[in-house]
Structures are given as C-alpha cells and as structure tokens.
Amino acid sequence: MIKDVISVGLPVAESMDIKKNRLLPLTLTGKEKRICIVTGIHGDELEGQFVCYELIRKINANIQCLNGIVDVYPYVNPLGMESITRRIPTFDLDMNRNFPGNEEGDMAECVAATIIDDILGCDLCIDLHASNIFIREIPQVRISQDNLDTLLPYSKLLNVDFVWVNDSVTILKSSLVHSLNSLGVPSLAVEMGVGMRLTKEYGMQLVDGLFNVMKELGIWTGEVPPIRKPIVSTDGQVEMIHAEASGIFVPAISHWKGICKGDCVGDIIDPLTGTVKEHIIAPCSGTVFTLREYPVVYTGSLIARILGGTGLC
User: Fold this and answer.
1) From CA 20, how far away is CA 1, in angstroms rounded?
2) In angstroms, rounded to a whole number, what is the distance separating the alpha carbons of residues 69 and 71?
3) Which residue of 21, 102, 155, 208 has the fewest C-beta atoms within 10 A of its own C-beta?
4) What is the dihedral of CA 142, 46, 201, 50, to 10 degrees?
5) Could you write out the DSSP letters of every residue in 175-186?
6) What is the mean pLDDT of residues 200-227?
7) Would you say the pTM of this structure is higher than 0.85?
8) Over residues 153-160, mean pLDDT
9) For residue 304, what are the β-bridge partners?
C-alpha cells in the first residue's frame, strides 16, 4: 500500500512528495508490531534503495508469513536523490541535521517533523546510510552508549560485520536516529558501502539481517537465513588515520582485512613531481573497517579506520 507521508508545493507547479510502502499481513488484529525502514536521507546514498527493493519483493513473495506491519520509506530526501546531491537542494541543508523538526517552521523543518510523527509508535526504526563518495564502509551499525542495552541485541541480529558503539560527533543530536531514541522509539543507524554506488552483496547481507530482526519482533513467521556474529567495538580501540599531506592516495591494503602495526597503509603521491609526499604506516594492529575510496586527498582527509586488537599478527 503506497501512502503519502507529505507533499510540499514547489515553484512551477511541481511538488516534493515523500512516500512510503506499508506492507500489511493478510489478516489484521489491531495488535501488530511495526518496523520502519528509512533510507535516502542523503541524496547521494543509494545502497538502501536496493535493500528496500529486495525487502519488499521478498515479503510480497511470501506475504502469508507477514505477521506485522512493515513501513518502508525509500527516499525521504527525494529532491536530493533526483539531483544526486547529499543535501536538500536549493536550501543546502543536511536533512539529518534537522530533526526532530518543527511543524511551524520552514519547509525542511516541517518535513522533518512530519517524518518523525509518521514513525512514532513503531517498535523499531532502522535508518540506512551509505557513507559518502569518499569512503567505503563495511556493513555496520552505529549506536550510542546511552542506548546500548536496548539496541545491541537488535544490532547483533542485523547480519552486519561490525557494531560501533560510538558517542562521538557521528551520533548527532539533530539526526533522525537520535531524535527517535529520545522520543522512545528504538532506532539504529546502519552504514555500508560507498556513496553513489550499489554494493549488491552488502544489500543482500542486510536484507537477511532485516528478516532476522523481524522474526525476533514477531513480524515475520517464515524461515530466516543464518547470520554472522559481528565484531563489537568494545572489543578493541578504533584508530583513525588522517592524511598529513595533499595529493593522490594509492592504497596498499584491502578493505575489511587484517593489518599489523607498522604495515604500509598506502602512499600519498604527487603526480607532478613523481614523488611520495607521505608514506602512511599503520599505527596499530587490527582490522580495516573504513578505507578511502576517492583518491584525491588533502591534509586532514580521512584515510582509514582500524579496529585495534582484532588483527592476525
């Protein structure tokens, strides 16, 4: 059932329409649990689009196994997706810095408040992201320490490789997930892949996890595939590597592989002079869960994140 969440009039007789697909069981009792799958907050993050497609397709193929309500929001920033921009175009606003919004505010604030209001009351919300065009991430859940007891069990069912318990600036108070958790709706943020791309294997991996979560909630009664056991960041220290020079980054390591302290991470080269501007060395042993995808870097650019303590040295 396709439903309008909000429609906002735009110039030249156009409109911005945010829609959701509500999947319902064949027989309603009024006591169904509800899960919300949200993606497309950033217009350049497309990994969630494939997840939505596969999830809806598989539910519809076995609708007799659906025992609850599944609300799928494939693109809550439709203008960003249409223009392939991360932010809301024209307004140049990051939607995920605008929650919980304000019904009496400007367009972006009103849209954010309407999305929150539409999700309120669900039993779990999962917000799917896809890093950006610069960085590749392995499928991971990011949660704050404040919500650890509630959210960690769901995180372990999502079939991700890594759960990052992180209270840094990546868990923002103005994000959808933080706002919903503050309002009593258990919510998880998932990161995977790279911006402007689809990584099919990551998408299929997460779809399997979503069915396991729905099974746990009693929303799905069908068979579910086995899932992997994720590494949790409390098992080790996350080390970040930033560029100390500008140039072209040439990696010497692979994504989601073990690395030893002192190994070469890669070089930042100068194509004009034919010289190496920085030879980057791993500060610790561990596993590389974030790796630079876009080769142009500047001083301070993120190169990699390593979960220390899980290396094979």
Assistant:
1) 8
2) 6
3) 102
4) 110
5) SHHHHHHHTT--
6) 98
7) yes
8) 98
9) 241, 291
* Closest to 136 measured CA to CA, from 41, 228, 202: 202
Task: Record the tokens describing residue 67, joined without a space.
Answer: 């025992």
Q: Is 194 helix (H, G, I), strand (E, B) or coil?
A: coil
Q: Residue 239 — very low, low, confident or very high, per pLDDT cuts 50/70/90?
A: very high
- 94 vs 85: CA distance, rounded Å: 10
Please, what's the b/e burial string for 66-75 (b: 16 or more CB within 10 A of its CB; e: otherwise)? bbbbbbbbbb
CB atoms near residue 180 (< 10 Å): 25
Asked whether 132 and 94 are in contact (CB, 8 A), the reply is: no
Angle at 256 between CA 252 and CA 261, to 5 degrees: 55
How far lies 261's CA from each of 60, 124, 162, 307, 310, in Å? 49, 40, 21, 12, 12
Return the amino acid letter for 16. M
Phi-psi bin for 152: left (phi > 0), alpha (psi -120 to 50), beta? alpha
Give yes or no for a contact between 130 and 46, defined as CB atoms under 8 angstroms apart: yes
